[in-house]
Structure formats: structure tokens, C-alpha cells
Amino acid sequence: MTTILQLNASLSPQGQSDQLANRLVAALLAKQPDAKLTVRDLAAQPLPHLDAAEVGAFFTPAESRSAEQQALVAVSDGLVAELAAADVLVLAVPMYNFGIPSTLKAYFDRVARAGVTFKYTETGPVGLLSGKKAYVLAARGGMYQGTAKDSQTAYLKDFLSFIGIDDVTFVYAEGLNMGDANRAAALAAAEQQIALLTA
Ligand SMILES: Cc1cc2nc3c(=O)[nH]c(=O)nc-3n(C[C@H](O)[C@H](O)[C@H](O)COP(=O)(O)O)c2cc1C
């Protein structure tokens, strides 16, 4: 049975990234009705910034962790288990101030765990979450795809690859704040791409 993990991050109740992710997931479920869907809304239930206490807990051997450290690691362990169980990852990613939402960064900070989701070898890092397919639904007010200003795409590819997820497909909805015509065309193109991807 396929397991789909959808991560939403929009601060808007009508977030376009969330809506495009919903569309993609609906199409995936239509093809695989027995697939299991988990939706994690990082905006509605934000994780705090990673701090020294939590990093310290990660690097403390399990048998030596205090009760507070065990509780901190348990949050990360739960997120890692949820991610590890997913066959398909659907990331709804608004662009905020030229980057990903800080809530998504806080999530990444919890699932990048040495010895758990990646390891370093003499030849470099090796991601341990292999065999997954990821989709990124990228919603942006402006237009950056293919330019040096699109730091999101390279960052997301690098991060996902670091933990072993190399099969990543991006769907862009750009120019959403550049007038009604641009917005409508961008959303129609994104929806068409989703339809092709799930045909
Ligand atoms: C706080 C904030 C920062 C934003 N920064 C950018 C930006 O740097 N570049 C851009 O193209 N659009 C920016 N936008 C516009 C959003 O990317 C756009 O509204 C997009 O639709 C957000 O995704 P959503 O509809 O899923 O919430 C920003 C919007 C907000 C609310």
C-alpha cells in the first residue's frame, strides 16, 4: 500500500500551494484509492526553531538523555518515522522572502538526523531515505524559475537529496501577484502539469 505524506506550509487560508498539493494528491488517490494519506500542516502546527537544547539532545547518546532531552528527541523521531513510512512526499511550498517558509525549515531541521536519515562516509554524505518520490508545488508572487533568484529549487533539491530523496518533480505557479491574467495563466498551467503528471 502506498503512503503519501503531504506537507503544507502556507500562512494563507486559501494558499495556492496547498490547493495545488490537494489537487495532486486527489489525482494520486484517484489512481490508487487504497493509498494512505497523512497531511501535516506546518503552518497550523508550527515547530519551534531548532535550538541548542534540542541539538544537544540529538547528540547525547540515547542511554544518557535526560527526560527533557528524551522528549525533544521523541518529536524528531516521530517526524522521521512519519517521513520514512511515506512512499510519496508532496511538499506545498510558498515562496516567502526569497526562501522556503521558516516552518518548513524547522521541519527539515527535525528530519535531518545523522545516522538516521543521512550518514557521512569517506566519500561524502549518503542519504538514508531512498526509494521515495517527491513533488514540490511551488507558489510564488513573482517569477524566478530558471534564474539565480530561485534559490528555493536548488535548496530543496539539495536538502532532499541529502537525506536520500533524489526523484523530485517541481510544479511551479509563478507570477501569482502579477495581475489577474498572469495569475490565472500560472494556475491553469500548474493544473495542466499536475494532470499530465498523474495521467
Ligand atoms: C510574508 C510573505 C513573503 C513573500 N515573499 C515573496 C518573495 O520573496 N517572492 C515572491 O515571489 N513572492 C513572495 N510572496 C508572495 C507569495 O509567494 C505568494 O502569495 C504565494 O501565492 C504564496 O503561496 P500560497 O498561496 O501557497 O500561500 C510573499 C508572501 C508573503 C505573505
Automatic annotation (TrEMBL):
SUPFAM superfamilies: Flavoproteins. Its EC number is 1.6.5.-, 1.7.1.17. Residues 3-194 form the Flavodoxin-like fold domain. One of its GO terms (molecular function) is electron transfer activity. InterPro entries: Flavodoxin_fold (IPR003680), Flavoprotein-like_sf (IPR029039), FMN-dep_NADH:Q_OxRdtase_AzoR1 (IPR050104), NADH:quinone_OxRdtase_FMN_depd (IPR023048). FMN binds at residues 10, 95-98. Gene3D superfamilies: 3.40.50.360. Keywords: Flavoprotein, FMN, NAD, Oxidoreductase. Homodimer. Belongs to the azoreductase type 1 family. Quinone reductase that provides resistance to thiol-specific stress caused by electrophilic quinones. HAMAP family: Azoreductase_type1 (MF_01216). This is FMN dependent NADH:quinone oxidoreductase.
